[in-house]
Give the backbone structure.
Amino acid sequence: MSEPPLQRRPRRSLDWSTAFIAVTVIGAAIAVYVRDGQTRFLEILVSDVALFLDILPKVLAACLIASFVAVLMPRETVLRWVGAESGFMGLIIATMAGIIVPGGPITVFPIAAAFLAIGAGIGPTIAFVTSWTLLGYGRALIWELPFFGPEFVVWRSLIALPLPIVAGLLARSLAGLFGVRPGGGT
């Protein structure tokens, strides 16, 4: 017996955050054009298009990885380990996963969205993203150790360690209070 297809939340083609970003970009472009002239405007535009073309394959790859994760991960396993009913252990598992997942936001956010789509609870998903943000090993190895040394990294990590779990508990409580289900519906 095959599993039902993933239920997708209906999305509008243009939402308020997209509109705000578009208006901000247009306003900034006009300001640069007026203040610095056409040459500087075109220089910035070409640089931004190059950056977009550089990032686009990474975003596409991350979305494909997240899609494959959503299809390959057994829904029952996700529900048991990090589902809405996984309890405190689900928050700990999600926190540990956030610590060890490599990559930047281009990788982590699509994976978190895929976990939500296949049944992960809001609390564990927030614990996962918060853990990756605060405790991800890549940031500690690449940035913090060279700049601040091991003592700083250890203390910062120890202090930050409970925060993903607290964030997950708070998210779970607020989602229950407001009747929010994974995927953004009520």
Q: What stands out?
A: The chain has a mean pLDDT of 89. The chain has two domains: 13-60, 73-186. The two ends are 29 Å apart (CA to CA).
